[in-house]
Hints:
Layout: H1 2-15, H2 49-64, H3 67-70, E1 80-81, E2 86-87, E3 100-101, E4 104-105, E5 115-116, E6 124-125, H4 145-152, H5 163-172, H6 174-177, H7 193-205
Antiparallel strand pairs: 1-2, 3-4, 5-6
Amino acid sequence: MRAATVIAVLGLALAGGAVITSVNAAPDAAKPAPVPLKAVATFVSIKDPAARSVALFQEAGKVIQSPRCMNCHPVERRPTQGDDMHPHNPPVAGGQSGHGVPGLPCLSCHGPANVPAWGEKIQSIPGDPKWALAPVEMAWQGKSLGQICAQIKDPARNGGKTLDQIHHHMAQDQLVGWGWNPGAGRLPAPGTQAQFGEIIRAWIDTGAKCPKA
């Protein structure tokens, strides 16, 4: 029984791309200092509403273009991982549903919560009850911030969502919120989800203008 348990633990760690250093080692629980976001009030001094709207989305872009978001928004339907956004290891595909392909669903390795991996390179395997790739309508990797902005606010390209629905998703969605609690070994998204939601709300209220592509 003990040998079988050890084999199972090693198999899970290797499947998640972890490198075992010691079965008794603990992952580095220290979290990197989060990158701050500017408060919405900071942008009030920009008198032109259109210019303020663009500046607000550029600030939101710190989150949108961070690895915590981009890794799950690939154009090729193959997730990336890590702060350097390298190809997912082991190689996987999201499939049409975003939950993996037959025989290798995401839940093969990703559970409902982050799990310590005791690895040298991978300190934890990320998890969330809603773990999945973003819908194909929200594929962002390789696009400029202006292109992402135009896609986000276009119902023909964002899955038919209104701006209010976009705001609700970014400000309150649980899986989006994982970006600020990504597990050991990953840099959290800038600021907080509440701050991000406030910036998106202010962007919408000032006309939802986009930066130049």
